[in-house]
Amino acid sequence: MNPLLLTDIERAVRSSWGADTCTPEFRAHWTPGNPARDQCGTTALVVNDLLGGELLRGEVLVDGRRTDYHWWNRLGMGVEVDLTREQFRPEEIVTEGVVIARPPRIARLREEYELLRDRVAGHLKRAG
């Protein structure tokens, strides 16, 4: 079996995003032109499933006011992986991340997370 590479995971995640895997309250605004938009929470959990490490959360600021949160991953040796980094507009600034413990049970975005997780697993199985 081939080792799992970050490039394989990134390709699988990016090809698995859809309006149905993003944050529901923003689903109507999701477009294929910015597929990473509002995918950060589910994506960070799936990457954490596959690679372990820590979950990071930063605030998204516009004109100094928090408008949202952004999630990404920190792997061993402090390497940060943010597969949804390109989603932000120039006026949106993401603060430094703080480590957030993974919840023992996924409640918010559970359906979206499970859908993304299963799609990514399918892509990785076909690629392997």
Runs with pLDDT <50, length 5+?
none
Arithmetic mean pLDDT? 93
Strand content: 15-25%
| Helix-strand string | HHEEEEEH
What's the shape?
globular
Structural class: alpha+beta
The assembly state of the depicted protein chains is: single chain
Question: How many structural domains can be distinguished in the coordinates?
Answer: 1
Number of H- or I-type helical stretches: 3
Major β-sheet annotation: 5 strands, antiparallel
Whole-Å distance between the termini? 7 Å
* Total DSSP E strands: 5
Over all CA atoms, what is the radius of gyration?
14 Å
The proportion of residues forming helix, as a percent range, comes to 25-40%
Keywords:
21% strand, 128 residues, 5 strands, alpha+beta
Structure notes:
The structure is a single chain. By secondary structure, this protein is α+β, with helices and mostly antiparallel strands. The protein has one domain (6-127). The chain has helices at 6-16, 40-51, 110-127; strands spanning 54-62, 65-74, 80-81, 92-94, 98-100. Strands 1, 2, 3, 4 and 5 form a 5-stranded antiparallel β-sheet that branches. Helix 1 (6-16) packs across helix 3 (110-127) and helix 2 packs across helix 3. The longest helix is centred in the last third of the chain and has 18 residues, at 110-127.
Concise structural overview:
The protein has 128 residues and is an alpha+beta fold. The chain has helices at 6-16, 40-51, 110-127, and strands at 54-62, 65-74, 80-81, 92-94, 98-100. Strands 1, 2, 3, 4 and 5 form a five-stranded antiparallel β-sheet that branches.
